[in-house]
């Protein structure tokens, strides 16, 4: 996805990482880059808002249960492998 405007970070990269941003799972530097892009780009900010509302809804409907740390780590590893396999964004450990 692209809004047609030039940004330091491509829209598709930002949207690929919006869940990392929402969950505060990216480092401070990357978070600042994503936040700057969201402040500049209305289409991405709108999509971010949809994702944020979805996350809130899921948390409310799932009763706030937290997944075990082992499961979260397996899920992160699986997501990393999928992104790498499909040539997605660069992921820093």
Question: If you had to describe this structure to a student in words, what would you say it looks like?
Answer:
With 93 residues, this protein is mainly α. It has one domain (11-85): Arc Repressor Mutant, subunit A (Orthogonal Bundle), CATH 1.10.10. The protein has helices spanning 11-16, 18-22, 28-40, 42-61, 69-85. The longest helix is centred in the middle third of the chain and has 20 residues, at 42-61. It starts with 10 loop residues before the first helix and ends in an 8-residue tail after the last helix.
Q: Provide the succession of SSEs.
A: HHHHH
Number of helices: 5
Number of domains: 1
Cα radius of gyration in angstroms: 14 Å
Could you name the ranges where pLDDT drops below 50 across 5 or more consecutive residues?
Answer: none
Secondary-structure arrangement, i.e. CATH architecture: Orthogonal Bundle
Broad CATH class: Mainly Alpha
User: Got a strand count?
Assistant: 0
- What's the multimeric state? single chain
The best one-word shape is globular
CATH fold-type name: Arc Repressor Mutant, subunit A
Span of the ends, CA to CA: 26 Å
- Helical content band: 55-70%
Mean pLDDT: 80
Largest sheet report: none
Protein name: Mycothiol system anti-sigma-R factor
Organism: Actinokineospora xionganensis
Pfam families: zf-HC2
Domain Putative zinc-finger: 11-44
